[in-house]
Design a protein that fits this description.
By secondary structure, this protein is α+β, with helices and mostly antiparallel strands. The chain has 2 helices and 8 strands; from the N terminus they run βαββββαβββ. It is globular, with a radius of gyration of 15 Å.
Length: 124
């Protein structure tokens, strides 16, 4: 399990170069307006979305898990605590097939619990 941090960036190429140097890791996937890094130390999934004019802002946060059962268990636990979710869905998002659920914090911060189940050629 690792935390996902999804950032909006003004210039994807510049940001990829910066974060590659900062974490000494090349991105695992680069697509039009999108890049993601699977960083071992510290354990982090860093996702960059090119959104000119919104650079430096948070896109969303997430928790990447290893199995769909973990997504379902997290969703059930969250619902039991009285927090509304989107329910568990199999979807295409961020150039990947995923099993995921979403919640929204009181300050409108979006959180995704997910497992990647495959690759996709569409952003979703």
């Amino acid at each position: 399990m690792r935390i996902q941090l999804a950032l909006n960036v003004d210039d994807l190429d510049e940001s990829v170069e910066f974060y590659s140097k900062m974490f000494d890791t090349k991105p695992g996937k680069i697509r039009d307006g999108y890049a993601n890094f699977a960083i071992a130390e510290p354990p982090l999934k860093l996702v960059l979305f090119q959104n000119p004019g919104q650079g430096g802002s948070l896109n969303h946060l997430g928790v990447e898990v290893e199995t769909a059962d973990q997504v379902e268990a997290a969703e059930a636990r969250i619902v039991d605590q009285g927090i509304e979710t989107t329910g568990v869905d199999n979807t295409l998002c961020c150039y990947a097939a995923k099993t995921e659920t979403w919640v929204q914090g009181p300050d409108d911060t979006r959180w995704e619990w997910y497992v990647k189940t495959g690759d996709s050629e569409v952003v979703g």
